[in-house]
Amino acid sequence: MIPAAFEYYRPESLQDALSLLQTHGDDARVMAGGHSLIPMMKLRMAEVPHLIDLQAIADLRGIRVDGDTVSIGAMVTQHEVIESTDLLRAAPILREAALQIADPQVRYMGTIGGNVANGDPGNDMPGIMQCLGAEFSLIGPDGTRTVAARNFFEAAYMTARTDEEILTRITFPAHAGGFAYEKQKRKIGDYATAAAAVLLTKEGGTCATASIAMTNLSDVPVWSEAAAAALDGTACDSGAIAKAMAAMDGDIDPGEDNRGPVAFKRHVAGITLSRAITRAWSRA
Ligand code: FAD
């Protein structure tokens, strides 16, 4: 498994990376940690004659928590997410999820930006970003813009990002309530058969707000407004959880593959959601 020949670039500024992208057009691709892109190149499923490595661009790094606003540079690695005490306070669901991605070697290189820009339905961070209500900052030849995570994913490997744009930062509000990321996988290091992200807040013994997103159960991550609504005003008891599971089931669209048939995936999705709600509620 050797990739086709390519030219390698390591720009030190966003402007230089953008101009390389413009110069080489469809023949160029940016690389973050390379742990999704390089395997695709080795398998010859992606041919990238001009590979633009983002590692040396300082503007893409750093985790900032400013009051209630969290901002993570696209080149922050999954390992850095796990190690960040600021993120542990402001969005602990990220650490819980990042620890379930692959293995330490992958997490030392794989970035949060690459995980969402990739558009792979099996990636864990897209659903979590939808759950958190994150916004993605993009820079391109026409300047900068932001796209909500809930509007970013269009189909498998297709996102609202254009080929000339670079994802720079991910921003979302800090979350102080209960949280859980529950992932079912065939073995350690595997992508999810099904995973559920749940954030909720409790007031006076009932659920005041909830947000729910599911992973690898459709071509895109599924932010299920209906499942979250089923918890509103309830004590997240078994009846409310059953309603949330039924609502979520109506929103997902899993396909049969080597992780199992559709009925199995729907079953596993329900179990992961039920466990995630129960754990999030116990922490709220
Ligand atoms: P890259 O591979 O460098 O890039 C991925 C794609 O995103 C490319 O198309 C690239 O052009 C684009 N891109 C990257 N950064 C930017 C940017 N800033 N702006 C615009 N486009 C950009 N992931 C999971 O979520 N869950 C898992 O369980 C999991 N298991 C894995 C197991 C193994 C053995 C391996 C090798 C990988 C696994 N992964 C898993 C994937 C891993 O998390 C990847 O590192 C991640 O998905 C992509 O991040 P990256 O930084 O490596 O991106």
UniProtKB/TrEMBL annotation:
Residues 1-177 form the FAD-binding PCMH-type domain. The keyword ATP-binding does not apply. Keywords: FAD, Flavoprotein, Oxidoreductase. InterPro entries: CO_DH_flav_C, CO_DH_flav_C_dom_sf, Diverse_Substr_Oxidored, FAD-bd_PCMH, FAD-bd_PCMH-like_sf, FAD-bd_PCMH_sub1, FAD-bd_PCMH_sub2, Mopterin_DH_FAD-bd. Pfam families: CO_deh_flav_C, FAD_binding_5. GO terms for molecular function: FAD binding; oxidoreductase activity. PANTHER family: XANTHINE DEHYDROGENASE SUBUNIT C-RELATED. This is Carbon monoxide dehydrogenase, medium subunit. It comes from Puniceibacterium sediminis.
